[in-house]
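Posting this for the archive.
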Amino acid sequence: MVLTHLKRGVFLLCLLPAAWLLAGALLGWLGANPIEEVIRNLGDWALRLLLLTLLATPLRRFSGWAWPLRLRRMLGLYAFFYAVLHLLAYAVLDQFFAWDAIWEDIVERPFITVGMLALLLLLPLALTSGQYAMRRLGRHWKRLHRLIYPATVLAVLHYALMVKADLREPLFYGAILAVLLGLRLLPANRRQPGCATQEGQCAAPSTIHWPRLH
């Protein structure tokens, strides 16, 4: 019951940025350049949610809490949702469906090229996030979902190339990503619920547990 309420609460919290941007666009809260504000904020939230998705596994391993893994798929799908909205806002609001100009941007502007690559890597993860895909893909499913790592790296790089001069925020996100990846190389040394050895404690895992978008 508590987990159900937690999932509902996280679901609603993840919707708040989109609702705030919609209200701001309608009511004129977004400043002199509302289109740029919408595009930037959608991209920011896609990256933040990707990092939260990556946080679930180390939080589970080092705390012993089970609930972070129960939220992982939702967070990953919301990250993809905001990334798609980020692209749509650029294509519709900024370029007005000018496909030739959009293609030219993708080819000639590195930060857009990198951003598109990140979104393309996230696409198969979103499409295969359900239980049916897990059963069909078997052991290949885990390998496929390791794409979240290069996708998040490319998302940080996309941000850094976009801002050009003031790199404080992309460096901050890059540092968080480095910590999250580094934690996966450390052995978990806390007792996991439901796991015991003769000494009454869990042994450190022999393999790295990779995150999933589910």
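The longest helix spans residues 34-63. Residues 190-214 have pLDDT under 50 and may be disordered.
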